[in-house]
Amino acid sequence: MIQNTKRHPFKFLSKVTRLLLSRQNGTSLLVEKSYDTISPCYDEAWTAHMRDRSDDLIKRLQLNTHAKVLDLTCGTGYVTNLLSTAAGRQVIGIDRSQGMLAQARKNYAHCEFVQSDILDYLHTAPSESFDIITCCWGLGYSKPLCVLKQVKRVLKKGGTFAVIDNSLFSLFEVLYCSCLAFLENPDALENIMRFRFLAGPRHLQLWLRIAGLKPVHLWQGKKSYTVGSGTLAIERLRSTGAAAGFEYAAKPELAQLVFERFARIIEQKYMRDNRITITHRYLAGIAIK
Predict the structure, then answer these.
(1) Residue 224 CA neighbour count, 13 Å, CB half
(2) What is the Cβ-side half-sphere exposure of residue 285, based on CA atoms within 13 angstroms?
(3) Strand 69-72 relative to strand 92-95: parallel, antiparallel, unpaired?
(4) From the CB of residue 153, how many other CB atoms can be counted at a distance below 10 Å?
(5) Cα–Cα nearest to 118, from 130, 106, 103
(6) Is 4 inside a domain boundary?
(7) What is the 3-state secondary structure (H, E, C) of 47-83?
(8) CATH number of the domain where residue 18 is located
(9) Among 224, 225, 210, 201, which residue's Cα sits nearest to residue 286?
(10) Per-residue pLDDT reduced to its tens digit, 174-233
(11) Domain range for residue 39?
(12) Which of 121, 150, 202, 234 would suit a FRET pair with 11, their CA atoms being 20 to 30 Å apart?
């Protein structure tokens, strides 16, 4: 147990700066490792919670039968299957995580799933080869602007791109409590997750336009759940993938101590009526070429 609750802001900022300036960036591999680990329980923990938001995005697409569709960051294939059902043909799903794709192939054998970084896959795809491209809950783990530029190239003329993702301010409370825990023990910090989540619909609108796509619908929202303790908050965050890579932020030998301190902090800051509220804030958009 970490007994010293004194905070060390200068030491913490120095550590963060050194890690950010380091050429070593293992974010992608750590996120992939996280998703491989949680893949068996991902649908129960995350898909079931946010299913209605994904459903809404796909309904807004109004897919034409037999459209050729590509689903980026497909995960366990839930959205890939929705698209396949709507289009009446096989859809290709792309994801880095072997564990997530194993679940996808098990659940939706009628779809084609490819293990690849989404940007690598787009680079090899022929120009103007897809009618619809989607990216659900994963754009911020890649290089958004680079991905959008490739999406524009790969879409057919008049083709549609649809995206939904956590915003930069999703899980703000979790990030705040994590920082407080590391402020007390900066030496425990080993990895900085370099995500690229967008701030909101206007940020997404700007990136879409820079990439050469025309935004036609943009929106944002949030959805919450509650847990009864800080420990349960950690368990739920790990199982949903929303905090992918979080468990690798601390040195292995100190991780449990940091998690215990995080659990106490989030209880102190956000426990109301014996419940802690965890809020996912998201943005979404549809654009045409």
Answers:
(1) 10
(2) 23
(3) parallel
(4) 17
(5) 130
(6) no
(7) HHHHHHHHHHHHHHHCCCCCCCEEEECCCCCHHHHHH
(8) 3.40.50.150
(9) 201
(10) 999 999 999 999 999 998 888 899 999 999 999 999 999 999 999 999 999 999 999 999
(11) 9-288
(12) 234
- Residue 220 pairs with which residues in a beta bridge? 283
> Distances in Å between the alpha carbon of 36 and those of 25, 43, 245?
19, 13, 11
pTM over 0.85: yes
The pLDDT of residue 4 = 52
Residue type (1 letter), 4? N
Asked if residue 3 belongs to a domain, the reply is no
- The four Cα atoms 266, 268, 274, 280 give a dihedral, to 10 degrees, of -30
Structural domain count of the chain: 1
How many angstroms separate the CA atoms of 279 and 277, rounded? 6
* Continuous H helices in 88-133: 98-107, 118-124
pLDDT of residue 146 exceeding 80: yes
Q: Is residue 144 part of a domain?
A: yes
